[in-house]
Amino acid sequence: MVRKHIFFVFLLVIFYKMIDLKNKNALVTGASSGIGAAIAHRLAKEKCNLFLTGLGDAQLQETKEICEKEGVKVFYKECNFAEFASIDELVKEIKSIGFHIDLYVLNAGISQRDRGLDTDFAIDQKIMQVNYWSSVYLVKQFKDEILSSEHVNMSVTTSLAGLFGFPLRTSYCASKHALFGFFESLDLEYPNIHVTFLIPGRINTPISKSALMGNGEKYAKMDAGQAKGLDVDKAAKRAVKAIKKEKHRKLIGKGELLMAYINRYIPWLYYKIANKISPT
Ligand SMILES: NC(=O)c1ccc[n+]([C@@H]2O[C@H](COP(=O)([O-])OP(=O)(O)OC[C@H]3O[C@@H](n4cnc5c(N)ncnc54)[C@H](OP(=O)(O)O)[C@@H]3O)[C@@H](O)[C@H]2O)c1
Questions:
Q1: Can you point out the beta strands (E) in 94-175?
Q2: Candidate of 35, 166, 196 to mutate for ligand 1, largest count of ligand atoms within 8 Å of Cβ
Q3: Does the CA dihedral 234-235-241-244 come out positive or negative?
Q4: From the CB of 129, is ligand 1 less than 6 Å away?
Q5: What pLDDT is attached to residue 16?
Q6: Is residue 267 in contact with ligand 1, taking CB distance under 6 Å?
Q7: Phi–psi pair at 209, nearest 5 degrees
Q8: 87, 137 contact by CB (below 8 A)
Q9: Least buried of 12, 44, 118, 153, by fewest C-beta within 10 Å?
Q10: What SS3 class is residue 23?
């Protein structure tokens, strides 16, 4: 009998902080592909209404149709995060339909496949703009709505490469590190904001295909490491569970996640092996 009680208390402690996403509204960026599209579908299964954005009208429409099958309201608008004017248009649309955001899934991003000194400065700026500045700019457009909300959740997709340096990813790493700095501070500053950092290792998505080379051209290849990465739906399932549990940080991936611990606890080993791992 006592054991039974202890078991129920244990379960209560585990599920205590689970948030209910039913009838909540989520904005998902980078929802036209990969992790963002899979998270959107998972959120729809939780009966969460969605506003999807990303590049590619046809792909957004496809994600919308998949999510609508779960019986939720889904809106979408294409937006280029490389341009603030395009983000302004997105914000105007979200506000005009009265979509009050409870959960910001800040997930859009582009990767990099070239060494730092071989990357044009304009490309460094573009990666920072799409991966970092766009999210900062976007949430600031909703300042009044966030301040007047009782509780707001933000899910920020960073990367294992946001925890340490990695070859062929100088600006990509920098942009992901920057997300940690800004959004962790925001979480500490406002009691009504909770931030969950999603930290993927290698997830099987087409991200390497759209990664930028130093001259701005697309890398256009599927990395072997990427193809062997964690299945994107499994990644999204773990992501949404972490959001619901209001975790601060959630590592998502396979064996590569060990690098997070090696970097933190055995830094000399990290320096020995980080440039021996294939970056493609
Ligand atoms: N896959 C991984 O192994 C991995 C690992 C660590 C972190 N991440 C992070 O996870 C997030 C999602 O990546 P993913 O793997 O799902 O890659 P993905 O399939 O390429 O998805 C990236 C999303 O971002 C959108 N996007 C790219 N440039 C944009 C722009 N200028 N304006 C608006 N949207 C833009 C893409 O739209 P289009 O597809 O239409 O271009 C797409 O919806 C990214 O932030 C990425 O850095 C991924």
A1: 103-106, 152-157
A2: 35
A3: negative
A4: no
A5: 61
A6: no
A7: -65, -35
A8: yes
A9: 12
A10: coil
CA 120 to ligand 1 center in whole angstroms: 21
pLDDT of amino acid 275: 87
- Binding site membership of 56 for ligand 1 (Cβ less than 6 Å): yes
- Which domains are present in the chain? 19-273 (3.40.50.720)
- Percent share of the chain, pLDDT over 70: 96
- Mean per-residue pLDDT for 157-169? 97
- C-alpha 266 to ligand 1 mean position (Å): 30
Ligand 1 pocket mutation, candidates 60, 207, 280, criterion most atoms within 8 A of CB: 207
CA of 27 to the centre of ligand 1 (A): 15
Judged against a pLDDT cut of 90, whether residue 8 lies above it is answered with no
pLDDT at 102 over 90: yes
> Phi and psi (nearest 5°) for 104?
-100, 115
Candidates 146, 150, 149; CA nearest to 186 is 146
Q: pLDDT digit string (tens) for 175-233?
A: 999 999 999 999 999 999 999 999 999 999 999 999 999 999 999 999 998 899 999 99
What is the reported pLDDT for 14?
Answer: 58
- pTM here is 0.95
